[in-house]
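A favour, since you know our structure tokens better than I do. Could you add the entry underneath, on a fresh line?
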Amino acid sequence: MTTQSATRVDFAFGAADRLLKACEVARKQVEAGRRLVVYTRNEARLAKFDRLLWQFDATAFVPHVAANDPLADRTPVLLTADTPGSALAAGGAWLLNLDTECPPGGERYPRILEIVSGHPDDKAAARERWRTYQETGFELRAFDISGS
């Protein structure tokens, strides 16, 4: 069954390192004045991403907190391993999916960002997500970032 969604999903394929590219994407979103919710059920991956945000670039500062932190309403990047619900989508925040599956409630977000490395397991999981998004009526776009 296909439903029509206003959500657009941007797949960036060919990242040398998925989490490092996600840090760059988060920085660009903050610089653009956009709120970003970063989701994965994998708490170890989320913790690694959190650490990388502090060290991926010596001159970059990407303000981020856990989605349940008291400062979440004033922080542009929110990290969550829980279902990224409608409260987090408020105000037009975008969703950066670092999970291996499609995020539950993704239709609440105007844009979902997907970063895919060249690793075979990552590519296979991304193909599955692409099919799932496509079957549910999301607008899909693909970008080759292997040269960046």
User: Anything to note?
Assistant: The CA atoms of residues 36 and 110 lie 11 Å apart. The first strand starts at residue 8 and ends at 15. The chain has a mean pLDDT of 92. The chain has one domain: 8-144.
